[in-house]
Give the backbone structure.
Amino acid sequence: MGKYLYEFHWDCGRQGDVEGLFVATQEQIDNAIGKEVYFGEILGKHSEIFGELEKCDIKKLEISSEVVSEVSNHLGLTWSGYNPLHYLRYKCTKCGDEYPGEEMICIDPGNEVCDYCTEEDQAKHN
Ligand SMILES: [Zn+2]
């Protein structure tokens, strides 16, 4: 499935804005809408930024998935700011534990795998 560049923007009033440019598949975005994103104190002490991810918070940018793939080989999946998918919780299909997206190697719906299971797999094969 093609990966595209998405722009994330939350206006948190006086506390500031949370923004990010990140790469994802449409499927990963659809799966994330309606879920709770927990950023924590990213806008300063006691800021506690969290809330439900809504469709209007994320905008798909008009860049071809070929170009997005080429650039992400160098920049990874988060090009700037905050990647909301990293702050959602996913249930690993292998161990059944829940982890934030930044600790998941795969967040494709129905195929979520955490970093720890992947490391275990690799250790077994070596
Ligand atoms: Zn796992």
